[in-house]
Design a protein that fits this description.
The complex is a heterodimer of chains A (253) and B (304).
Chain A (H helix, E strand, L loop, with lengths): L3 E6 L12 E5 L10 E4 L2 E3 L2 E6 L4 H7 L8 E6 L10 E7 L3 H13 L5 E6 L15 E5 L6 E2 L2 H10 L8 E6 L2 H13 L3 E5 L15 E3 L11 H4 E3 L6 E3 L9
Parallel strand pairs in A: 7-8, 7-11, 8-9, 9-10, 11-12
Antiparallel strand pairs in A: 1-5, 2-3, 2-6, 4-5, 12-15, 13-14
Chain B lengths: L5 E2 L5 E2 L3 E3 L21 E3 L16 E4 L2 E4 L8 H7 L1 H4 L5 E6 L4 H13 L6 E5 L3 E2 L5 E2 L4 H12 L5 E5 L7 H11 L3 E4 L3 E4 L14 E5 L4 H14 L4 E3 L6 H10 L3 E4 L2 H4 L3 H15 L14
Parallel strand pairs in B: 3-4, 3-16, 4-7, 7-8, 8-11, 11-12, 12-15, 15-16
Antiparallel strand pairs in B: 1-2, 5-6, 6-14, 9-10, 13-14
The chains are: A alpha/beta (253), B alpha/beta (304).
Chain lengths: 253, 304
């Protein structure tokens, strides 16, 4: 099953967006689904906004049936976005549909001629829309070995280090993907004391901080039984969706 | 010409019957870019507890057919931070503000309400969330007992002359009996319904959908339950009933009025569109003209 690409004419909103932010999309007028679907922005081109998604439920299934010319309702751009000013050589890692916010950052880094490496992982070659070309800064990985490196995005990262195509230390990681991948990235960054930001994909209702539904447990000093909810928990919608990996309780990602 | 003004209590007039329900509009200061809060008839703030409350661990929400199941766990900033940080903004609003309060003991409700009264504010009144576990009664909800509801209401009545509405839980055998108890205790209004108790899980793995396992169901799925509750309450008490439960259209507002509501609250629909309450008003006026009525009062309780 491949990725869907959706290009939306959003007008002035496009100029406000930053990599790592999301839009909250109403996928239909009825009650199934009832809530909007938060979707990471995969790119901005002029007054157009791009989304990349997989059909995983009723919301994305409805989106996949949209026709050119349809009018849709979305709120955004929302969320904090990546901190692209982090020190270190940027390595961008996207897994599956998690490529979206990573791909947007990749395009922005290309635009500003900032050296970096993009690694995209997927189950098999059908989900890939890029060419495996490690010498030009793009690596692919597949679980079944049908494209690029056979294995995970972290296997691809190891290969790049072995081949000296990226520095062995001083990396700054930007990751988004399935929970297992993000946990592995957080653990890897912790072991190697690397800066690592993760864009979480939490279930949300409102996307604007009203419902308090998308809380994320934080590993912060000074937790006491009487702290406010903004110390132990942050909200993925307004405090995130991008968090520093070392601040997250990783079992919960 | 349709007149949307609602006389809710002796001292409380709403510019229109639509209020934002507790927990779906924060403290009113989160949405100014998206909606003019002052165009709402009223705003009920997120429930306050005595101390800051972190709420439940994730996951806290799950979508169900035409519904939203949540167990947020009353995450809120606590009454002290509210009085210092949120009340000053709320006092600048033209809309009628009702502060929702939630306690674990009768004493806590008293302390929260007293703290807000002391800060000399201009709020319209309070909504008392009685769907909270009562620590003194082994965790049984306040709202399932008529006698505790009456005692609690009477205590709070002594502390304020402002509008007090008691928000009832539908998870009881006879909601009309609880409403009568609130009336006997001196309440000014009844709001109903709070969420309907619910549960969901992943069918194949058995993984619970909410960290708290049990949650409260809201959204269009509960609308008929809410209408029946409002109908029952309106027949039992002479207080105004503020109806809610799955309202997402102007037609829904009228349904609640016909069931006996004087005003309504919109909850879950705000998550789809924070401007929904304001946007429904034009359509509501249109429907009133179609029905050839000037005020909603003319059809309140009228079902053939």
């Amino acid at each position: 099953m491949g990725l869907y690409r959706l290009v939306l004419r959003v007008g002035d909103m496009a100029a406000l967006a930053r990599p790592g932010q999301f839009v909250n999309v109403l996928t239909g007028a009825g009650w199934d689904p009832l809530l909007r679907r938060p979707m990471s922005i995969a790119g901005i081109d002029g007054r157009e906004l791009q989304l990349l998604y997989k059909v995983v439920g009723n919301g994305t299934a409805a989106m996949s049936r949209w026709q050119s010319g349809d009018e849709i309702d979305l709120l955004g751009p929302l969320g904090n976005g990546w901190d692209a000013a982090a020190d270190g050589f940027p390595v961008l890692l996207g897994g599956g549909a998690g490529i979206a916010p990573v791909y947007y950052l990749h395009k922005e880094l290309l635009r500003s001629s900032t050296a970096h490496h993009l690694i995209m992982g997927s189950r098999s070659t059908e989900e890939h829309f890029l060419q495996h070309d490690p010498h030009s800064g793009i690596s692919l990985s597949t679980d079944d070995g049908s494209a690029g490196v056979a294995g995970t995005v972290l296997d691809a990262l190891h290969d790049l280090m072995e081949a000296a195509l990226i520095p062995r230390s001083g990396l700054s990681l930007y990751g988004c993907g399935p929970p297992g991948m993000m946990r592995a990235l957080a653990d890897f960054a912790g072991q190697h004391e690397m800066d690592c930001q993760l864009a979480l994909e939490e279930i949300m209702a409102c996307g604007i901080g009203l419902c308090q539904g998308c809380n994320v447990a934080m590993r912060l000093p000074g937790n006491t039984p009487e702290h406010s909810y903004h110390q132990r928990y942050r909200l993925s919608c307004i405090d995130g969706p991008v968090f520093k990996a070392k601040e997250l309780v990783t079992w919960q990602i | 010409m349709a007149n949307l003004t609602i006389q809710l209590g002796r001292d409380v007039t709403l510019s229109n019957p639509v209020m934002a329900a507790s927990g779906t509009f924060g403290y009113g200061d989160e949405v100014p870019d998206l909606v003019d809060v002052n165009q709402l008839g009223g705003l009920v703030t997120k429930s306050l507890t005595l101390r800051p409350n972190e709420g439940h661990a994730p996951p806290r929400i799950v979508e169900t057919p035409a519904g939203l199941l949540n167990a947020i766990g009353l995450a809120n900033i606590g009454v002290e931070a509210f009085c210092a940080g949120k009340l000053p903004f709320l006092e600048t609003l033209q809309t009628q503000v009702f502060v929702s309060i939630a306690g674990a003991t009768v004493g806590e409700y008293v302390d929260i309400l007293t703290a807000i009264e002391r800060s000399g504010n201009k709020i319209a009144g309070y909504e008392i969330n009685i769907s909270c576990p009562n620590v003194d009664e082994g965790g049984m909800e306040f709202g399932v007992s008529a006698s505790i509801t009456e005692t609690l209401t009477a205590k709070l009545r002594q502390l304020t002359g402002r509008f007090i509405m008691i928000k009832l839980s539908p998870n009881v055998t006879h909601i009309d009996a609880i409403a009568k108890a609130a009336e006997s205790g001196g309440a000014d209004g009844i709001s109903a319904i709070n969420t309907v108790v619910g549960l969901d899980m992943d069918p194949l793995t058995g993984q619970r959908s909410l960290s708290n396992l049990i949650g409260g169901l809201s959204g269009p799925a509960i609308r008929p339950i809410a209408l029946a509750a409002v109908h029952s309450i309106a027949g039992a008490v002479s207080l105004p009933v503020i109806g809610m439960g799955g309202i997402s259209s102007a037609e829904d507002i009228i349904r609640f009025v016909r069931a006996g509501a004087t005003a309504v609250q919109i909850g879950t629909a705000n998550y789809r569109d924070p401007a929904v309450g304001v946007n429904l008003l034009a359509r509501l006026e249109q429907l009133m003209e179609q029905m050839q009525i000037e005020t909603l009062e003319e059809i309140r309780g009228v079902i053939h």
